[in-house]
Each structure stands twice: as structure tokens, then as C-alpha cells.
């Protein structure tokens, strides 16, 4: 059975999408079968992995709202050895359209049932909110990866996220675990980055990955070429660290 990992933090710009895409591609490079799901209406994972949204027939919206079977929304990205379920801007409506529906929080979990055993890992890139799309992800997930940017206010808002995780554990998914906390956009030249690492380690202790993602310009360039970092620049520091993270994720099993 594939392990479902939600990459989540309700803050925007902390590295959720960068981590979802590059961890998925790194796991695939290490020989794992990976399904990458974009559940953010902005669809940054979708375009970042080279899918043209204009060409998308079925996206995650159709799975959640129109009960389209998940396997009819899978796009094969051969160059990355990845299966991807894209998101288009249509998904922005789902947050409201799901409100009156029955069992609205378990839609993704149910949809995943039929295909879980085909994969080793299913990585879900969450939107920057704690709304119904994130709830669906947390309900479907075995565990969460929380990216934290090494910046001012890094820990701000985390209590809200942890509270949502606790609520989901209590009511919707008793098995949900914290897979790991990932420090991102680290800059060794600044005291601030070093302080944030210390603070986050004090708070989350052994949950913090020993892999720390530095700022790396190649990581920010790759999406505009529709490629993961392991494909765009396999020799870059960015590719090196995301492969290291993938190994850590596999070893944590
Ligand atoms: P989120 O999905 O949490 O909103 P993103 O992954 O989209 O965050 O990252 C926000 C911005 O920061 C993007 O422009 C991305 O390319 C850039 N970025 C993310 N991680 C890094 C990194 N390690 N080094 C340099 N730029 C990064
Ligand atoms: Mg994102």
C-alpha cells in the first residue's frame, strides 16, 4: 500500500510546492513508484512539472466534485517517471462547492482507495489554507511533512496548523502522523536562519529532518522550465539536498 504524505503549511511561500515536486522526483529517481497530487487551486505543481493546464481534461476538481475515478485524472510525466494528478483554477470553486456535500472531508481518501496499491508514495501538495482541501488531504494522509521557511515569524501560525492536525486525528483520521519537519530556504550567512533552525529543533526535536534545504537559485528556476531539479540540473546543490531528503524519507519507514 502506498504511503500518502501531505506536504502542508497554511503559510504561502514556505516551499510546499518546491518540496512536493522535488521530493517526488527524487523518490522516483531512487526507483520508487510515485503519484504526485496537486490540490492547490494555484496549480503550481501542475505547471512546475511541465503539464500545460490548457491540455488538462480531468483534474483533481473532477475527482472531488464530479466523482471522476482517480485513474482517469492521472497524467504520466515520463521524463520525471512520475504520475501526476493536476489542479486547475477550477479547483478554486471546490472549497465552496464541497460545503453542502455529505462526507466532504473524506472525498480524497475514498478516491485514493482504488489506486493506492499501485504506488510506493503518494505526495499531496496542499494549498496555503486550512480549508476543506487541506482537510481532505490530512484525512487521506498517513503522515504530513511540514516545510518551515528559515525566515522571520517561521513558527508563527504553526500552533494553528498543529491544532488542525490534532482535530483531524481526533475526528477524521486517528492514524495521522507527523512524518517530518523540513527547514527550507536556509541561508548559512545569516544569524536569522541559524536561529530559526535552533528554535524549530527545540520545538519539534527529532521530528526535524537532518536534511536542511538551502536557498538555491536553480530550485527557483526549474519550475519555469517545467522540470524538477533532478531533471533540470542534477548536479546542483538543490538536486543533491532533495535526493538526500528522499533517502531520509525512505529510511524513516
Ligand atoms: P509554497 O508552495 O509553500 O507557496 P513554493 O514552493 O512555491 O512555496 O516556494 C515559494 C517561492 O520560493 C517559489 O518562487 C520557489 O521557487 C522559491 N523557493 C522555494 N524553495 C526555494 C529554495 N530552497 N531556494 C530558492 N528558492 C526557493
Ligand atoms: Mg504551493
Automatic annotation (TrEMBL):
<comment type="similarity">
    <text>Belongs to the ParA family.</text>
</comment>
<comment type="subunit">
    <text>Dimerizes in the presence of ATP but not ADP; ATP-binding is required for double-stranded (ds)DNA-binding. Interacts with DnaA.</text>
</comment>
<dbReference type="InterPro" id="IPR025669">
    <property type="entry name" value="AAA_dom"/>
</dbReference>
<dbReference type="Pfam" id="PF13614">
    <property type="entry name" value="AAA_31"/>
</dbReference>
<protein>
    <recommendedName>
        <fullName>Sporulation initiation inhibitor protein Soj</fullName>
    </recommendedName>
</protein>
<feature type="domain" description="AAA">
    <location>
        <begin position="3"/>
        <end position="178"/>
    </location>
</feature>
<dbReference type="InterPro" id="IPR050678">
    <property type="entry name" value="DNA_Partitioning_ATPase"/>
</dbReference>
<dbReference type="InterPro" id="IPR027417">
    <property type="entry name" value="P-loop_NTPase"/>
</dbReference>
Amino acid at each position: 500500500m502506498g504511503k500518502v504524505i501531505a506536504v502542508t503549511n497554511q503559510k504561502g511561500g514556505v516551499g510546499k510546492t518546491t518540496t512536493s515536486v522535488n521530493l517526488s522526483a527524487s523518490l522516483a529517481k531512487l526507483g520508487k513508484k510515485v503519484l504526485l497530487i496537486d490540490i492547490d487551486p494555484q496549480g503550481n505543481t501542475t505547471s512546475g512539472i511541465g503539464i500545460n493546464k490548457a491540455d488538462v481534461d480531468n483534474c483533481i476538481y473532477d475527482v472531488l466534485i464530479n466523482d471522476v475515478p482517480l485513474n482517469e485524472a492521472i497524467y504520466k510525466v515520463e521524463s520525471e517517471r512520475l504520475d501526476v494528478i493536476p489542479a486547475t483554477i477550477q479547483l478554486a470553486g471546490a472549497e465552496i462547492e464541497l460545503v453542502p456535500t455529505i462526507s466532504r472531508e473524506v472525498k480524497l481518501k475514498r478516491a485514493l482507495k482504488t489506486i493506492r496499491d499501485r504506488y510506493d508514495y503518494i505526495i499531496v501538495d496542499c494549498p496555503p489554507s486550512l480549508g476543506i482541501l487541506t482537510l481532505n488531504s490530512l484525512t487521506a494522509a498517513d503522515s504530513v511533512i511540514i516545510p518551515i521557511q528559515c525566515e522571520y515569524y517561521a513558527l508563527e501560525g504553526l500552533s494553528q496548523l498543529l491544532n488542525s492536525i490534532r482535530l483531524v486525528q481526533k475526528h477524521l483520521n486517528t492514524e495521522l502522523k507527523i512524518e517530518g519537519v523540513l527547514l527550507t530556504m536556509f541561508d548559512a550567512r545569516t544569524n536569522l536562519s541559524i536561529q530559526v533552525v535552533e528554535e524549530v529543533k527545540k520545538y519539534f526535536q527529532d521530528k526535524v529532518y537532518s536534511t536542511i534545504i538551502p536557498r538555491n537559485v536553480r530550485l527557483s528556476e526549474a519550475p519555469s522550465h517545467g522540470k524538477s531539479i533532478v531533471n533540470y540540473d542534477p548536479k546542483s546543490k538543490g538536486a543533491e539536498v532533495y535526493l538526500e531528503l528522499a533517502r531520509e524519507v525512505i529510511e524513516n519507514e
